[in-house]
Q: What sequence folds into this?
């Protein structure tokens, strides 16, 4: 049972850290995509969406290579005594960030786009600089998008399997998450525990989706 | 097409009058700097735009009341007013007097989503005024309101204009508003000014001698786009 507790702990920490990192990373990307008329925009949109269509094993494979000891990216970390990020919690976080990126960027981008030009014009005529406007108008007005992004990323990270298995290696207490634990329980024919854990995740996923809908309904009505 | 040049005393209400599609809104946006056109804009001694420079909107002391309510929806009525006061460069404003004049006292703590059209435009007007502008631009601010709300706000604008001495450019195609408010009228048609008050004649009409005219608001703006 301690194995299970540590798997739950790793899963929740991974989802929480990934969510926080992605809110920070996806905000400038979503902002740029919502405001730019650049031709690059379509390319960036496609790149951001890639993790949705790629098999997790493909994504996991490339991440494994990129974070491995022979990767040029890892050369940058050599001065800090880091040879590889594979099979570590930090590596899992990076993998989860890439894997869930579209689920953070899309709602944030949509929220920014739905603001239109008017609030920005208003803020400018009230002498708010563009940076001031970003923090005091754009972000608070797009808060529903941020909440949606946070819930989606958290839930999606909890539901991850392929990527975390490839780059994490399922080390108990370190990189073994709940979804992998279920798979191992089934392998060991431990059906009762697999049932319990799978049921728990089912309830969790349902609660997340339900709260998304409730947020949408409540805030949607408020804005109209 | 817009090709408009004018020069009016920077005091009182100057109505910009014309049918829809004549370029009134484009002209106002260009004066505020929200739209970038070729030309120059000068308010009193301040050059906002000429051949070399284009002062960004947030560095112009301009007040703008948009046609539809444009209150920031994530802030209360007071939050909207405070947003403007915080950024008005430390100018002192008669907040209480203004709130009373525009009958906003009981609305201050309300969320802006729960205001009527007339209430919203009164808040928008108050917000523009507490931002301590040098000139107030109003783009058909009453066009979406019913007669009753209009009749309530028009005298408020007239009083505020008189008391504050703030020059107002007032875009409208409503004869009643123009008649009640305007000290002078610029008529716009198909992007051109077709009728501009003769300055000397107009000054005496306003009851001002040329010596009393403190400053001019001038603009000459051109654009190839449709207004």
A:
């Amino acid at each position: 049972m301690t194995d299970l507790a540590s798997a739950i702990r790793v899963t929740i920490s991974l989802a929480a850290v990934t969510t926080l990192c992605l809110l920070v990373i996806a905000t400038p990307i979503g902002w740029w995509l919502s405001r730019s008329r650049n031709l690059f925009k379509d390319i960036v949109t496609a790149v951001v969406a890639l993790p949705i269509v790629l098999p997790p094993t493909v994504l996991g494979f490339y991440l494994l290579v990129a974070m491995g000891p022979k990767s040029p990216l890892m050369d940058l970390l050599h001065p800090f005594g880091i040879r590889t990020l594979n099979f570590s919690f930090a590596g899992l976080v990076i993998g989860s960030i890439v894997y869930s990126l579209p689920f953070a960027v899309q709602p944030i981008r949509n929220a920014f786009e739905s603001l239109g030009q008017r609030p920005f014009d208003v803020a400018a005529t009230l002498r708010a600089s563009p940076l001031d406007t970003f923090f005091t108008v754009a972000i608070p007005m797009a808060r529903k998008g941020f909440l949606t992004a946070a819930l989606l990323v958290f839930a999606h990270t909890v539901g991850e399997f392929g990527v975390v298995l490839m780059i994490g290696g399922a080390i108990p207490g370190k990189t073994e998450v709940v979804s992998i634990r279920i798979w191992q329980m089934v392998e060991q024919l431990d059906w009762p525990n697999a049932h319990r854990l799978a049921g728990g995740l089912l309830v969790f996923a349902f609660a997340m989706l339900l709260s998304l809908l409730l947020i949408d309904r409540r805030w949607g009505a408020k804005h109209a | 097409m817009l090709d408009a040049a004018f020069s009016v005393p920077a005091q009182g209400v100057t109505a910009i009058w014309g049918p829809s599609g004549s370029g009134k809104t484009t002209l106002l946006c260009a004066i505020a700097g929200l739209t970038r056109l070729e030309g120059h804009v000068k308010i009193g001694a301040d050059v906002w735009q000429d051949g070399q420079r284009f002062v960004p909107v947030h560095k112009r002391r301009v007040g703008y009341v948009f046609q539809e309510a444009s209150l920031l929806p994530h802030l209360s009525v007071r939050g909207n007013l405070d947003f403007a006061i915080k950024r008005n460069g430390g100018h002192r404003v008669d907040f209480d007097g203004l709130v009373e004049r525009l009958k906003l006292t009981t609305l201050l703590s309300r969320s802006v989503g729960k205001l009527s059209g007339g209430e919203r435009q009164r808040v928008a007007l108050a917000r523009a005024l507490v931002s301590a502008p040098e000139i107030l631009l109003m783009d058909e601010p009453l066009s979406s309101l019913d007669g009753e709300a209009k009749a309530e706000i028009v005298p408020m604008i007239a009083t505020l204009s008189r008391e504050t001495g703030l020059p107002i450019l007032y875009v409208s195609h409503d004869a009643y508003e123009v008649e009640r408010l305007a000290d002078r009228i610029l008529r716009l048609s198909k992007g051109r000014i077709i009728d501009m008050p003769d300055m000397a004649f107009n000054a005496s009409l306003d009851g001002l001698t040329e010596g009393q005219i403190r400053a001019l608001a001038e603009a000459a703006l051109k654009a190839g786009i449709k207004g």
